[in-house]
Amino acid sequence: MHELSIARSILAIAEQAIPADAPGFVSGITVQVGALSTIEVEALRFAFDAIKEDTQLGKAEMLIDLVAGEALCTHCGTVFTMNTWSVPCPHCNRFSASIQKGKELKVLNLTMED
Questions:
Q1: Angle ∠(44,57,6) on CA atoms, nearest 5
Q2: 87, 90, 105, 106: least surrounded by Cβ within 10 Å?
Q3: For 69-114, what is each residue's pLDDT tens digit?
């Protein structure tokens, strides 16, 4: 389950981004996850919730912005939606795709409250 190590990395990134003199607490963290990133969203959310206690993000809710997969067929040039691996081009039916979107994993922002 690599989601646990990813959750740890997300916590570390977020904790480094919080200014030392920031009043209040972090109530939310938004993470962008691509549909082709091989990350199980619910497992990531579970891991985050399990390890956030006793950290600066103990009260934070993880919000996930899911990015749809998009591929470019290198044979015919068709751009198509690809939310799972091994999807043929809908135009020429070949498996020669270059992934354009969907592998993202980014911490987008933190929400602070007083």
A1: 30
A2: 90
A3: 999 999 999 999 999 998 999 999 999 999 999 999 999 999 999 8
HSE (CB half, 13 Å, CA atoms) of 26? 25
Scan for tokens 């919000």, then name that residue.
Answer: 63
* pTM, entire model: 0.86
3-state secondary structure (DSSP) of residue 66? strand
Q: Is 29 helix (H, G, I), strand (E, B) or coil?
A: strand
The whole-number pLDDT of residue 22 equals 84
| C-alpha–C-alpha distance, residues 69 and 46, integer Å | 23
Residue 27, φ and ψ in degrees, nearest 5? -100, -15
Question: If you count them, how many residues does the chain have?
Answer: 114
Name the token pair of 79. Answer: 């751009």
Tell which phi-psi region holds residue 24, choosing left (phi > 0), alpha (psi between -120 and 50) or beta. Answer: left
What is the end-to-end Cα distance of the chain in Å, rounded?
35
